[in-house]
Amino acid sequence: MLTLPYEAGTARIVYVLAALVLAGLAGGLLLGKPNEERTGRLPRALRIGLSGILVISALIHLVLGAWDHAAEPYAALIFLGMLCGFVGDLIMARLVRVPNRLVCGMAAFGIGHLLYSGAFLFLSLQLTSDGCRYLLLWLVPLGVFVLWAWNHYIRKPGGSKVINLGSLGYALVIAVMTSLALNLSVLATRLAAAGLGAALFVISDLVLGNWQVQGHDWPGVNDVIWTTYVLGQLLIVSSVAGAVICLS
Predict the structure, then answer these.
(1) Of 234, 229, 184, 230, nearest to 208 (Cα)?
(2) pLDDT at 1
(3) Cβ atoms within 10 A of the Cβ of 37, count?
(4) Which pTM does this prediction carry?
(5) CB within 8 A of 81, min separation 6: which ones?
(6) How far apart are CA 229 and CA 197, in angstroms?
């Protein structure tokens, strides 16, 4: 078990919340019944519940773990990013009424990714004055990859220009966020959770875009999206503990 740089009570709360997320995800995948479309076993209530627990976990990391610490800005940005993800989940689950579910969902997640990007950039510059020296090593290949993936697996020829262009902008934001996370992971191995979490986010959003924009669904597609998404968010939220250690 990883040792957290928090008081014992706070550490126990974080461990319990992480265990609830993992147990809920595993239990839903193993015991859940396939929906009518056969796109997944995880019921909507469980999916939203897992996202809500991650918001609470991010808040605990901020208030009880990083408050009045040099890592507080990082923790605050991660919490706000996770909160935007939760709003995006509510929109995509049709629990919040919006004019265009897909566009508004991308907007919520995109803002979240910008907040994560700010967190990763802040921490990189706190660790060293040359904190972005590895950024281009990640940004160039990732940028090329997401553009290729968007063109082949997300863009819908003849489809809505708003959604096609919106998904392109979102893909580029994802590339920047992931590059910053991987750059941070290279600077400090204790922050590898941020890079791995961001990479899982890329997988999740690529599958989601292929399904929701191009319309390619297959058995279990939603479970793949949510498994990579939940694990990615959990790792990003958990990176706050690494930030506290690195800045102590």
Answers:
(1) 229
(2) 45
(3) 10
(4) 0.96
(5) 112, 113, 115, 116, 119, 236
(6) 8
